[in-house]
Amino acid sequence: MPSSPVDSPSRPSPRRNRPDLDPRGPRFGAAITAVLLLVVVFLSLTGASVAALGLLTVLAALFAWGALAGAGRHPYGTVFKALVRPRLGPPAALENAAPPTFAQGVGLLVTLTGVVLGLAGLAPAVGAAAAVAFVAAFLNAVFDYCLGCQLYLILARAGILAREQTAAVGS
């Protein structure tokens, strides 16, 4: 028997109509994001600042999509559900969508900061923001450690986030 509502695949999620997630989906998306962020860093370091800014802008838009629509409705999640998940066995457990969705918001904040500073003429900020976001995406993709999710849990335990958003988050 599942130990918490987060682990229950049959129980509907009470959080803003966001279904629980296969935890492998956000990790798949983090891998794609990490590669693209590494490209931004490379472009920034080689002087292709316009291309770096353009790609970081696209990534910020993808983070916005994930933060606003929910991590489960992110385009990478759609690709995962259609092409990758059918080739895998069922997940051991489903996870609450709120922490990965919050992590998308953190990614949006970091990448949007780089975009705004890049548009303001601070080209090195584009590569710096991409490098910071890359570290987080890499940790999630390779080690299954989501920095944004950990920040979510810290804020939830501190009572900073709304109660209904954190109801199904484990201790």
From TrEMBL:
Pfam families: DUF4395. Keywords: Membrane, Transmembrane, Transmembrane helix. It comes from the Bacteria. The chain crosses the membrane at residues 25-45, 51-71, 106-126, 132-155. InterPro entries: DUF4395. Residues 1-10 have a biased composition (Low complexity). Residues 1-24 are annotated as: Disordered. Residues 22-157 form the DUF4395 domain. This is DUF4395 domain-containing protein. It comes from Cryobacterium sinapicolor.
